[in-house]
Write a structure and sequence with these properties.
Largest sheet: 7 strands, mixed
Structural class: alpha/beta
CATH superfamily of the largest domain: Type I PLP-dependent aspartate aminotransferase-like (Major domain)
Order of helices and strands: HHEHEHEHEHEEEEHHHHEEEHHHHEH
Number of helices: 15
CATH architecture of the largest domain: 3-Layer(aba) Sandwich
Bound molecules: pyridoxal-5'-phosphate
Number of domains: 2
CATH topology of the largest domain: Aspartate Aminotransferase, domain 2
Radius of gyration: 21 Å
Strand order of the largest sheet: 1-8-7-5-4-2-3
């Protein structure tokens, strides 16, 4: 049996939403994007939201808006997708890698506290796999830190966590900004895309400019009221706005995101029950967290991960790796040679981890096949290796 890693939830009816945009003269960021941004402000109860064409470009816009100077440091967990660190490098900053908790794989306040220096300008906690970091606790530790020399921005990497909550709070409640991804496999998707939410008016104004070359007006405003309006450039920016053609796919998904979570919870609970007491490492679930259950990731101990991938693939099951430690990649090993040694939890998990198929629409038959292959073949590998 063949089991896809992921199947998106979009339907043929969604094509009509794109067709409606094609029927207007305006394909890029316009009224449709504005409608989605209002949905985001309402959903997250924040004053500001803007759509971007990927998490990566959105994060780059945020860091450009901060005007990082060479030597400015941003604390990033080693257990994340490379993009979280790459944007810091692209914006001219220095990445300071934090290790993560071995149980939840989340960055912890104590780990961050050890890394704050007078050069720290930002912290980027990652809500990995769908559970939220405790931003409020992290922020309390950082704000009182004796080494701190100025304001330290909290940029939440919420690529895995749209609908999750920590003690009843959604992403962006305690951070300065939260950035989402609408990449093909994400819980809300338009193929490529993302969003930034923020609370501070001045910071958000700078982010809006940095999102669009540094220009003071987006295209729809340059041609408003029936005439051309001049714009200025106050800062260096990137090109990160999301066109209406893609934004049109988002409204129904945002409307139904909470109603779709129980299916993810049910599928993850089935996996957790099936693998309880076995030889695999499972990600610890926090009581205080409602996980967005973005992906279901397991650890295969004793160096057997790649054999496990081969066994799953041989049985028609597609899997991925989320993630090898960022500190393990050739680029970061060369650039920050000490980081791998300082992040042993991330390095170890990065050598063990693989992600199983899990998405609303995965059939019981498909999931049973995955469970059977894991229990029959991966368990043997994990014990024998
Ligand atoms: C934790 C994390 N951060 C950032 C990104 C980058 O998102 P995007 O592909 O929208 O740039 C991803 C992508 O999968 C991710 O998993």
């Amino acid at each position: 049996m063949k089991v896809d890693f992921y199947r998106h939830p979009l339907k043929p009816e969604d094509a009509q939403r794109i067709a409606a945009v094609l029927a207007t003269p305006f394909l890029t960021t316009g009224q449709v994007a504005r409608g989605v941004e209002q949905q985001l402000r309402d959903y997250f109860d924040v004053p500001h939201a803007c759509l971007v064409n990927s998490w990566t470009n959105g994060a780059l816009a945020v860091l450009l808006a901060m005007e990082l100077r060479p030597g400015d440091e941003v604390i990033v967990p080693a257990m994340t997708f490379i993009a979280s660190a790459n944007v810091v490098e692209l914006a001219g900053g220095t990445v300071v890698f934090a290790d993560v908790d071995p149980h939840t794989l989340l960055m912890q306040p104590e780990a961050v506290a050890k890394l704050v220096t007078p050069r720290t300008r930002a912290v980027m906690p990652v809500h990995i796999y769908g559970q939220l970091c405790d931003i409020e606790a992290m922020r309390a530790v950082v704000d009182m830190h004796p080494q701190r020399s100025g304001p330290i921005l909290f940029i939440e990497d919420a690529a895995h966590c749209f609908e999750g909550e920590f003690q009843g709070h959604k992403p962006g409640r305690f951070g300065d900004v939260a950035i989402f991804s609408f990449y093909a496999t994400k819980n809300v998707t338009c193929g490529e895309g993302g969003a930034i939410i923020a609370r501070d008016d001045a910071l958000f104004g700078r982010i809006l400019e940095a999102r669009l070359h540094g220009m003071s007006a987006i295209a729809v405003d340059r041609f408003s009221a029936g005439r051309y309006n001049h714009w200025d450039m106050n800062r260096l920016g990137t090109k990160a706005n999301l066109p209406d053609v893609l934004a049109a796919l988002l409204p129904p998904q945002i409307e139904t995101i909470d109603a779709r979570l129980p299916e993810r919870q049910r599928l993850c609970a089935r996996y957790r029950a099936a693998f309880a007491g076995g030889p695999l490492r499972l990600v610890g679930q926090l009581q205080s967290t409602k996980s967005a259950e973005h992906i279901f990731t397991i650890g295969v101990p004793n160096g057997a991960r790649d054999q496990a991938i081969a066994a799953l693939n041989a049985n028609g099951i597609n899997v991925t790796v989320n993630f090898r430690s960022v500190t393990h990649t050739s680029y970061y090993r060369k650039r920050y040679p000490a980081a791998a040694v300082q992040c042993p939890v991330s390095e170890t998990w990065g050598e063990q981890t693989l992600t199983l198929p899990m998405f609303p629409g995965l059939t019981e038959e498909e999931q049973d096949h995955v469970i059977r292959v894991v229990r029959d073949e991966v368990y043997k590998l994990a014990k024998a290796a």
